[in-house]
Write a structure and sequence with these properties.
Layout lengths: L1 H19 L7 H11 L9 H13 L5 H10 L3 H14 L5 H7 L23 H12 L1 H12 L6 H11 L2 H12 L5 H12 L7 H6 L6 H10 L5 H7 L3 H4 L1 H15 L8 H10 L6 H4 L5 H8 L4 H11 L11 H9 L6 H14 L5 H6 L8 H12 L7 H11 L6
Helix pairs in contact: 2-3, 3-5, 4-5, 5-7, 6-7, 7-9, 8-9, 9-11, 10-11, 11-13, 13-16, 19-20, 20-22, 22-24
Length: 415
C-alpha cells in the first residue's frame, strides 16, 4: 500500500515541476510577441486579464529573461508591451535590470486609459514611469546605490527621474539626499516636489524636515498639497507643534493647521484650550468656536482681537459674532468685547466689530452705530446700510432722525 502511494506522490511532484517550468520555446521574446498578437485593436483599455496572465508567465522565466526583456523594451513602440516588460521585471527583481528600468523612468507615455474597465481615465497613477520606480523599489538596496551614484555624478538628463524613483523607494538611505534636494532653492521645482513626496513617506525623524520646509515660502504650497493627501501617523505630532505661532511664524502655523483640519477634520483636538482656539482660527474655522468651546474661549479671543496680526484679529472678531445673544443663551461678555472695538483706531476693525454685533443680534450697538455716521472713516455708507437692514427705516445720514426713531422704539424693538 505504501509503494503505490509513493508512486502517486512522485508522479504528482513531477507533473507540478513540468507544469511550472517554462518550455524551451517559451522564451521571453516569444511570450511578448504572443501577448502583442492577442492585444485587441481599436480599444483603449488595457486588457487586464491578458496582461496579468503574461506578466506571470514572464516572471516565471526568472532572471534568465532579463536581457531579452531589456531588448524588447528598447525596441518596442507599443506602450502596452513596454508596460508589460516593466511589470514583469518588477516581479523578477533582477539587479541586472536596473539600467533598463532607469531608462524606463524617462518613458513619457501617459496612459489615458481605464484600468478598471469602467471608462475612468487614470493617466497619472498608472504610468510606465511609476511602474519602473516600483520595480526599482522591489529590487531594493542595489537599485538605491545605483540611483545615488547617478546623483553624485552631477546633473544628467536622468536627474529628475532619479529623484522621482528615490521618492517612491523612500528607504532611510534615500531620505537623506531627498532632504538635501528639498531644502535647496537652487534645485528645479519638479525635483523638489518629488523629494518632498518621498520625505512624506518616511518615519518620525524624516518628517521633521517637513516642518522646516513649511517655513520656506517657495515650496510651502507644494508641501501643503502633498501632506493633505499623505497618510503617515508621524505627521500629526510634527504639525501640531507648528501651531504655536511664536515658534513657527504665522504663515507656517496657518499651513500646519489647514493640513491637520483637512486630514483629521474633527477627530483631532489640541491638548489645551489656548491651542484649540488658535487651531480653529488658523484653520479658518473660527465660527465653530462658539459651538465647540463656548465661554472658555472668550479670554483667548479677547487676546487675539488686540493682536497686530491683521488676519488673526479679523478671524477672532468674526468668531465673537458666533456667540449669540438670545433669551436662552444671553452672552453679554462677547458683546462687551466687540463694543469695546467700536473705539478702535483702525476703521476696518470698527466695521468688522459692527458686522459681528449684527450677527450676534446685539442691539446695544445701535446708538453707537448711529453716532458713527458722523465719523469720517469712509465707512458711513456701510454703517447706514446696517441700520437700514436692522430697522427697515431710512433716515440717510440724518443722525438726529435716527436717534429720535431709536428713542421711540428701543424698548419694543425686535428684529
Amino acid at each position: 500500500m505504501e509503494r503505490p502511494m509513493r508512486m502517486i506522490l512522485v508522479l504528482v511532484a513531477v507533473a507540478a515541476i513540468t507544469w511550472s517550468a517554462p518550455g524551451q520555446g517559451d522564451s521571453a521574446a516569444a511570450l511578448v510577441a504572443e501577448y502583442e498578437s492577442k492585444l485587441p485593436r481599436g480599444k483603449k483599455d488595457l486588457p487586464i486579464p491578458l496582461f496579468h496572465k503574461y506578466r506571470m508567465k514572464l516572471a516565471a522565466l526568472g532572471r534568465a529573461a532579463t536581457p531579452s526583456l531589456a531588448s524588447v523594451f528598447d525596441s518596442s513602440k507599443n506602450w502596452r508591451v513596454r508596460y508589460l516588460v516593466v511589470a514583469a521585471l518588477a516581479r523578477i527583481k533582477d539587479p541586472a535590470s536596473i539600467p533598463v528600468l532607469i531608462r524606463a523612468l524617462d518613458d513619457k507615455t501617459i496612459l489615458q486609459h481605464s484600468f478598471s474597465g469602467m471608462g475612468v481615465p487614470r493617466s497619472a497613477r498608472y504610468r510606465i514611469r511609476q511602474e519602473a520606480a516600483d520595480a526599482l523599489k522591489a529590487i531594493g538596496p542595489p537599485a538605491v546605490e545605483e540611483l545615488l551614484g547617478i546623483l553624485l555624478n552631477g546633473r544628467s538628463k536622468s536627474y529628475e527621474n532619479v529623484v522621482y524613483a528615490l521618492s517612491v523607494i523612500a528607504t532611510p538611505a534615500a531620505i537623506e539626499p531627498l532632504a538635501l534636494i528639498a531644502m535647496s532653492q537652487s534645485e528645479p521645482a519638479p525635483a523638489r516636489r518629488d523629494a518632498i513626496q518621498g520625505i512624506a513617506r518616511g518615519g518620525a525623524r524624516d518628517v521633521q524636515v517637513l516642518a522646516e520646509l513649511l517655513q520656506d515660502a517657495s515650496v510651502r504650497r507644494d508641501v501643503v498639497e502633498i501632506l493633505e493627501k499623505t497618510r503617515n501617523k508621524h505627521l500629526t505630532p510634527v504639525l501640531a507643534g507648528l501651531i504655536h505661532e511664536g515658534a513657527a511664524g504665522h504663515e507656517t502655523a496657518r499651513a500646519a493647521a489647514g493640513i491637520l483640519w483637512k486630514k483629521n477634520k474633527k477627530k483631532w483636538k489640541p491638548g489645551n484650550l489656548k491651542d484649540q482656539v488658535d487651531y480653529l482660527l488658523l484653520a479658518g474655522r473660527g465660527t465653530s468656536i462658539a459651538g465647540a468651546i463656548r465661554q472658555k474661549a472668550l479670554s483667548r479671543l479677547a487676546y487675539w482681537v488686540e493682536s497686530k496680526n491683521r488676519e488673526m484679529r479679523s478671524l477672532a472678531i468674526k468668531a465673537l459674532g458666533g456667540f449669540s445673544t438670545t433669551r436662552r443663551n444671553r452672552n453679554i461678555r462677547a458683546g462687551d468685547i466687540l463694543l469695546g472695538l467700536l473705539e478702535h483706531s483702525d476703521k476696518d476693525v470698527r466695521l468688522e466689530a459692527v458686522y459681528s454685533l449684527r450677527d450676534k443680534r446685539d442691539y446695544r450697538v445701535m446708538e453707537s452705530l448711529i453716532y458713527m455716521l458722523a465719523a469720517e472713516d469712509g465707512n458711513q455708507k456701510k454703517y447706514m446700510s446696517t441700520l437700514r437692514c436692522w430697522t427697515g427705516q431710512d433716515f440717510g445720514l440724518d443722525i438726529e432722525g435716527w436717534l429720535a426713531w431709536w428713542q421711540r422704539n428701543r424698548s419694543t424693538f425686535k428684529r
